[in-house]
Design brief:
Radius of gyration: 19 Å
Low-confidence stretches: none
Strand content: 5-15%
Number of helices: 6
Number of strands: 2
Mean pLDDT: 92
Largest sheet: 2 strands, antiparallel
Order of helices and strands: HHHEEHHH
Length: 123
Amino acid sequence: AMLDGEINVGSYTPGKLQDPLVLALMKKLTVKEDPALTALYPKKIPNRVTVTLNDGRVLTEQVDDLPGFAGRPMTRDDIEAKFRANVKGLWSEQQTRGFFAYAWTIDQEPDISGLFQHMVVGS
């Protein structure tokens, strides 16, 4: 996220994880537990990132939960946008629409076996 502005499915590809810029950044990272943040779990899942810049400035950002967690439920539009971003380049728009048509009415199906037919990559 610090290099690309977001985390997506492409963030975890072998090529991305072996990118010299990513590796250089990872060498500079330190992960520390903050007991005060841990104490908020499971009601919240807080995370804090602190960055010290070359000029000495310190930037800090904290989130207590993310969209999709109990404190911040996602809307249907949010879910579809996130899902579309993750299947982009793997699924056609037609397949994505077909999946949503099935998934949003799955409670009306006698079983979920049809779900997997909609999830085949490259169909």
